[in-house]
Amino acid sequence: MKIAIFSDIHGKILLPFKLVDLYQKETGCKIDFILQCGDMGAYPNIENLDKATIKHAQYDRDELGFHDDFTKENPEIRAFLDELNINMICVRGNHEDHDFLDELEKENPDKSIFPIDIYGRVFVCRSGLEQKLETEDEVLQFVGIGRIGDRKGRSEKRFIQDYERKEIRKLLKTKNTFDVLITHDKDDSQSGYGMTEIRQVLDNIIFQYHFYGHTGEPFKEETDSNCITQSIKIKELEFNESGILEKGCMIILTKEKEELSIEVVEQKLTNKMTKFNWKSQ
């Protein structure tokens, strides 16, 4: 099983699929799923954009990619996604239309993940629930925790909600072990900011890998303070001033014979998809 992992795509919903297609063609290796660490930029209605997205969208229409490309049928995109035949499972970030996502979550009360786009290829997973990805040979067990933490007690929907905390408390009682934890935020043990619930989960449940985004830091791999989990900061999927993607924006997680390993996709591959050509690739 191979899984491509991205974070902070900010409306460029199609780009992870394009990069996976490129990776498969360049390497000959099949990707089974995509995991995404939040800040999808899932805004179906322009009227609901937050201030940061409005600001960036004035200079970069890609910020509105979910609205433009994934809320109404585009035959070319449909054909591309159908041929690729890979789903992307995301956690919520802080830059999403949470009212929209809340409604979809309520419409799918019995599902741990639910689709959010017109093509049925982009899914959001509920925070704190046990999840599985399966191929013929392998099963990957993971947990997602979306949104961000807040040390000031604010309750806006970009911050973790009480019903999600409840699910996390249930998770802590199971004492199960998992392959992967996917979050948008990081924990707050060292920095003084972030989500306390993530720290609780990492200190009480065994995960082999924790992938997160949000912080604006470069790609980073380190051993968590629990001395077990490998903590991976995914670089935001953003084009720099030169129009290229930076190191660590695309990670490949492999599970083979119950063993997990990661590959940081080299820039010589991602450089083939630039700010100026990626939509035509």
UniProtKB/TrEMBL annotation:
<dbReference type="Pfam" id="PF00149">
    <property type="entry name" value="Metallophos"/>
</dbReference>
<dbReference type="InterPro" id="IPR029052">
    <property type="entry name" value="Metallo-depent_PP-like"/>
</dbReference>
<dbReference type="InterPro" id="IPR004843">
    <property type="entry name" value="Calcineurin-like_PHP"/>
</dbReference>
<protein>
    <submittedName>
        <fullName>Metallophosphoesterase</fullName>
    </submittedName>
</protein>
<feature type="domain" description="Calcineurin-like phosphoesterase">
    <location>
        <begin position="1"/>
        <end position="215"/>
    </location>
</feature>
